[in-house]
Amino acid sequence: MGMRSIAVLAGAACLLVITAAVTAATPNVVIIFTDDQGYHDIGCYGSDIPTPHLDRLAADGMRFTSFYVSQAVCSASRASLLTGCYSNRVGILGALGPKWKIGLHPGELTIAELLKHKGYATAVFGKWHLGHHQPHLPRHHGFDEYLGLPYSNDMWPGHPTRAKAFPRLWLYDNDGPVRPIDTLEDQAALTTLYTDKAVDFIERHKDRPFFVYLPHSMPHVPLAVSDKHKGKSGRGLYGDVIMEIDWSVGRILEALDKHGLTDNTIVWFTSDNGPWLNYGNHAGSAFPLREGKGTMWEGGCRVPAIVRWPGHVKPNTVCDKMAATIDVLPTLAAVTGGELPRHPIDGVNLLPLLEGEPNANPRNEYYFYYGRQLQAVRRGDWKLHLPHEYRSYEGVKPGADGKPGPLARGRTGYELYHVGKHPRELYNVADKHPQLVEELKALAERARADLGDHNRRGKGQREPGRAPPLPPAEGAERKRGG
Q: Where are the domains of the chain?
């Protein structure tokens, strides 16, 4: 073999090594984010609703049993997922509606922007709910493409109790509305539409790193399902909707398999909060957890979460360690070498957990806010509820067939629960552990100093974006370092 041939072969080998190294540092990322899906609403979490594709995802990866959202409500939860921050830090609380003038601040760094800096193609297909004015839409937060609803699918004239409160609902394509969503038949097409767009994006970007964010409008009410799954689950309309979401997951996995992308793609599935229980047979289940959406009891904020990343996440593993949606951004930064923002964030890197490092425990503390109120704190397996009133689904008859039932009101004082052994939060042991209660009260005070509480402002809070947009928020002068 001549020297020239040897040189060519050596160069080709070097190129293969470099390509492999780049691929390893830039895995594709798919985040599937459902709306109001309960902890118990997947087969591998105990449900009898058929979810073979999600069960396969769990069998191929890691299933979390103590995974949290920052607040058990739509916009706040989404802001935290995308920014790695408690929603109180970034000023997004509750569920933004059509009359709201705020949205995610342009100074906040999103997962899409972090990955875009690393050369990723980025897209979101589904429910946005972080501001519907143009400066707050996805294309202004790092996404190359967007198609979906600007807010919840019940914010329309078909609302069962507040029809006059909402204008006509529109499907958005990139920076503006393109088609009205006027009927349940229109809503029934959404899951398929979002899925088809995601699959098409994967196919168009199979030769470069990509990030697909797929935040489904379902199973938020009003429930709607296509004919291909109507009546198929054996669990009524809600079960049919979950079955269609599972079908969507299957389509994504099939597209990755088809193009040889499975081994180099992180797939992360979770929900924005627990089930909206006063909708009765149109709501899911948080069993065995207490309460549901709109509360920071475990049934409202502990959600199903599954991560698959072949070669890194060991198949068929269950993780009982505490983790949260705010940890997704810093985890992806660690995976890709992406640069975190200069301003503070709250997430931690979960890579040691995902890769099975012995004794890994990156998150040991967590704050539970609802609205502006700090309602609980957790350290290790211990969760202390602070005195507050809360919506409750206990002791009242739920609604049915798309109409909500009444809500009760609950009140709690200082209540201490070991949510590792007893996640149902039924056994208050505050009187048996007075020193631990005092330590957790001190943790709560630390949270208040940083993120506020009621009318008290925390030193670490930042402003949301407003229409027209404000200058960069204090503490967020630049999205990234360097």
A: 26-364, 367-458
